[in-house]
UniProtKB/TrEMBL annotation:
The chain crosses the membrane at residues 7-26. PANTHER family: CARBOHYDRATE SULFOTRANSFERASE, CARBOHYDRATE SULFOTRANSFERASE 12. This is Carbohydrate sulfotransferase. Its EC number is 2.8.2.-. The gene is Chst12. It holds the Pfam family Sulfotransfer_2. It comes from Motacilla alba.
């Protein structure tokens, strides 16, 4: 009996020791970088939660992990941070090597003539709108009622985590996500240039920005932490500052079409343009390269693109590409309580305010925004040749994004 008890005790001790190792050393993103910058209050819960304070009621395993992380926070608060130095801003103009960025250009104006926004009230209103419609049982859309635990790991690949500053960013393509990813790389120091972390976001090459290996995302947690991954996600969602940026859904579609089908993009031509041209324009024997197709005047029309989005066969083949997938499917706003909701329409003001709230405004500035050539005033022209019935179906497809993020219904496009 004594040997059996000793054996059981040994197994328990070894298990606890292994759990401690997993949690404390955190693979290559250790808890030594578990810094918090959640200094602003939320409407539902005034004041951010500081390390060591009592957290909301958690399951036993979550509570155990939370205590471990809180104790680690206390020990690591004295560790100096490399990024606390003022960053050199670099040159006043970027080196633009990417075709898309070269076509669109940068806006380096200071926008001093813009009226300053009451950002705090603006955030309260945006979050209130989102929470009200998430709680409104009469407003429904796919996946609304599921819990966070119901979301598959592969659908969490847009949640980028910075453990150094306690930030989670859900990126939405065509909403300044390239530059926000650059900011996250600088903050997390996840990418080195000749052995030194990048300091100026615009110095980071675009091809590295969109490399999936560059960022720590939620869908990588399972591979790193196994069965503890969901518990760690929940803890970080409670402790970290979570933000996303959105855009008028129809304008975002126009922007996606322009950048992926009006510019020569080999990947999008083969994956999407060829099927669209065959299905909706009755073309056969299409060129295998985008340059040949463009040279022959073979391009996807906006009408082809809209047909593709509305075609029920599209989703049966594969989920929408991230560039036109709905924001509610990318970022799960009814399952994740976002602390900050930015909009492309107020990008400069929102970005400056967010960096200030995160207490990283001394470390870097948000890269200057592109000149917004895809403006909301263009919607009438772009949709002029799209049948009314298609426009109405398209609105239903993206209605949740319009409603949840406070964008007005485009009545002028939905009536004769």
């Amino acid at each position: 009996m004594t040997k059996a008890r000793l054996l059981r005790l040994s197994v328990v001790l070894v298990s606890i020791f292994m759990i401690l190792l997993i949690i404390v050393y955190w693979d290559n993103v250790g808890t030594a970088h578990f810094y918090l910058h959640t200094s602003f209050s939320r409407p539902r819960s005034p004041g951010a939660i500081a390390a060591g304070e009592d957290w909301e009621a958690l399951p036993d395993v979550d509570e155990f992990l939370a205590k471990l992380l809180s104790s680690s926070l206390k020990q690591n608060n004295s560790i100096p941070r490399k990024t606390e130095q003022l960053l050199v801003q670099g040159s006043n103009k970027p080196v633009v090597s990417n075709l898309e960025e070269n076509v669109r250009g940068y806006d380096w104006s200071t926008h001093k003539d813009r009226n300053s926004l009451d950002q705090e009230k603006l955030q309260v209103e945006r979050q209130r709108t989102l929470r009200e419609f998430c709680a409104n049982s009469s407003f429904t859309f796919p996946t609304k009622e599921r819990s966070f635990d119901d979301i598959p790991n592969y659908e969490l690949n847009h949640l980028i985590v910075d453990d150094r500053h306690g930030v989670i960013y859900c990126y939405v393509p065509k909403v300044a996500c390239t530059n926000w990813k650059r900011v996250m790389i600088v903050l997390s120091e996840s990418l080195l240039d000749q052995g030194v972390p990048y300091r100026n976001p615009l110095d980071i090459p675009r091809e590295h920005v969109h490399n999936t290996s560059t960022h720590l995302t939620f869908n990588k947690f399972w591979r790193r932490y196994g069965k503890f991954s969901r518990h760690l996600m929940k803890i970080k969602l409670k402790k970290y500052t979570k933000f996303l940026f959105v855009r008028d859904p129809f304008v975002r579609l126009i922007s996606a079409f322009r950048s992926k089908f009006e510019l020569e993009n080999e990947d999008f031509y083969r994956r999407f343009a060829i099927p669209m041209l065959k299905l909706y324009s009755n073309h056969t024997n299409l060129p295998t390269s985008v340059s040949e197709a463009f040279g022959a005047g073979l391009k996807v029309s906006f009408s082809d693109f809209i047909q593709y989005l509305l075609d029920p066969r599209t989703e049966k083949m594969a989920p929408f590409n991230e560039h036109w997938r709905q924001v509610y499917r990318l970022c799960h706003p009814c399952q994740i309580d976002y602390d900050f909701i930015g909009k492309l329409e107020t990008l400069d003001e929102d970005a400056a305010y967010l960096l200030q709230l995160l207490k990283v405004d001394r470390l870097l500035r948000f890269p200057p925004s592109y000149r917004n050539r895809t403006a909301s005033s263009w919607e009438d022209n772009w949709f002029a040749k799209i049948p009314l019935a298609w426009r109405q179906q398209l609105y239903k497809l993206y209605e949740a994004d319009f409603v949840l993020f406070g964008y007005p219904k485009p009545e002028n496009l939905l009536k004769d």
